[in-house]
Amino acid sequence: MDYRRLKRKLKSSVPYMTYFFIGINVLIFFIEAIIGDSESGDTIMKFGALYVPKVKEGQWYRMFTAFFIHFGYEHLAGNMLALFAIGPYIEGFFGHLRFTVIYIISGLSGSAFVYFMEQRSGDYSLTAGASGAIFGLFGVLIIFAFIREMRDTFPLPRVIVGLILMFVPSFTEEGISLNGHIGGFVGGTVVGFILYNLMNAANSRKRNNNLY
Predict the structure, then answer these.
(1) What percent of the chain has pLDDT over 70?
(2) Helix, strand, coil: what percent of the chain each, to 5?
(3) Which residues, listed in sequence order, are joined to residue 127 by a DSSP beta bridge?
(4) Where are the domains of the chain?
(5) Which residues are known to be catalytic?
(6) Separation CA 13–CA 11 (nearest Å)
(7) For residue 69, how far is the Cα from the chain centroid?
(8) Bridge partners of 50?
(9) What is the DSSP string of 9-23?
(10) How many beta carbons lie within 10 A of that of residue 180, not counting itself?
(11) Do 89 and 153 form a contact (C-beta atoms < 8 A)?
């Protein structure tokens, strides 16, 4: 991928889907706050928080809706600031559709890992928030650190330090879903790696076709 063309693309591309996801999360949160207490378990259950016993009863939609719901203003603000900070770079690099795929699969991977681990332990809790999806985007930054066109902006030491700082609260604070973060991180990294290699393969075919 040509570095100068990539820089122009990142500057000129409007991250519509990043703004869309921020808007949806904020809108749902304010509806939560209007209808009930956004920090109430009853309220977030009504809005589709992940609760494994309910999923086992057939409410599979909670695997998806959970990463659009937040506990309180601080939870929402932290996640949306992170999405605003890194989303435009990833969307600019991969394009709107691939970015959407990474975000959604990261969120679903976080939910799936929560389901798997809680199913094994039998210790169930309410889980909600976009952090699984956002950890998936951070996984993509590790891929960026090894891409020539992106590693100046995202050097590996900086990415690793940022990732450690993101994970620390998962181990030190109660009420934070470590399983959701791990699942989202792994899902986003894997999908990002696959999509990057598919993009490379498509670009190689284009270059080869231009030679004829």
Answers:
(1) 92
(2) 75, 0, 25
(3) 50
(4) 3-210
(5) 131, 181
(6) 6
(7) 13
(8) 127
(9) HHHH---HHHHHHHH
(10) 30
(11) yes
Tell me the C-alpha distance between 21 and 212, whole Å: 42
Closest listed residue to residue 195, CA positions, set 96, 115, 49, 110: 96
Residue 164 has pLDDT above 80, yes or no: yes
162 in Cβ contact with 141 (< 8 Å): yes
- The first and second tokens of residue 153, run together, are 């902006």
190, amino acid identity = V
pLDDT at 188 over 90: yes
Q: Taking the CB of residue 207, how many other CB atoms lie within 10 A of it?
A: 9
Nearest in space to 1 (alpha carbons), one of 190, 209, 206: 206
pLDDT digits (tens, 9 = 90+) for 39-63: 888 999 999 999 999 999 999 999 9
Give me the helices (H) in 48-177, please. 52-56, 62-65, 72-94, 96-121, 131-144, 156-172
The number of angstroms, rounded, from the C-alpha of 22 to the middle of its chain's C-alpha atoms is: 12
Alpha-carbon distance of 66 to 111, in angstroms, equals 8
Q: What is the pTM of this model?
A: 0.90
Q: How many C-beta atoms surround the C-beta of residue 29 within 10 A? A: 22
What does the chain come to in residues? Answer: 212
The owner of tokens 């991180």 is: 185
Q: What is the CATH number of domain 3-210?
A: 1.20.1540.10
Q: 140-175 burial by CB neighbour count: b if 16+ within 10 A, else e?
A: bbbbbbeeebbeeebeeeebeebbeebbeebeeeee
